[in-house]
Amino acid sequence: MTSSPSKFYAIFLFLSFALLLFSTLEVQAQICPRRSITWHRPCPARDTVKCENHCINKEHAFFGSCQPDHSFKLVCLCYFGC
Predict the structure, then answer these.
(1) Among 13, 15, 40, 50, which has the minimal tally of Cβ within 10 Å of its Cβ?
(2) How many domains does the chain divide into?
(3) pLDDT for residue 13
(4) Cα–Cα distance measured from residue 65 to residue 58, given in angstroms and rounded to the nearest whole number
(5) Is residue 46 pLDDT above 90, yes or no?
(6) Residue 49 domain boundaries
(7) Are 65 and 46 in contact (CB under 8 A)?
(8) Where is average pLDDT lowest: 4-8, 19-23, 68-72?
(9) For residues 59 and 70, what is the distance between their CA atoms, to the nearest angstrom?
(10) Using 50, 70 and 90 to split pLDDT, how confident is the model at 18?
């Protein structure tokens, strides 16, 4: 059984691809909430779409939602990458 260079090349490519695949699976993005800087009005209790659109379009966040703060008032929180 003689081994040809194409077999070694195919095995090398397969192992390189497998290593690349497994290394990218280990990376997980963290998402951290931050109070919106530009939202200056009350946050609607049941309608968080306005807050979400504001965070995405104005502050370039991943998403946004109305959440209670420490005083149980609803505030617009924007979620960014940590």
Answers:
(1) 40
(2) 1
(3) 81
(4) 14
(5) no
(6) 31-81
(7) no
(8) 19-23
(9) 23
(10) confident
Q: Which two tokens stand for residue 37?
A: 């800087």
Per-position DSSP letters for the chain, written without gaps between them: -PPPHHHHHHHHHHHHHHHHHHHHHT----EEEEE-SS--SPPPSS--HHHHHHHHHHS--SEEEEEE-TTS-EEEEEEEE-
Task: Give residue-wise pLDDT tens across range 26-42.
Answer: 556 688 999 999 988 88
Q: Please identify which residue in the block is written with the tokens 């919106």.
A: 36
Residue 3, domain member (yes or no): no
| CA–CA distance, 49 with 80 (Å, rounded to integer) | 17
- φ, ψ of residue 35 to 5 degrees: the values are -60, 140
CATH number at residue 68: 3.30.30.10
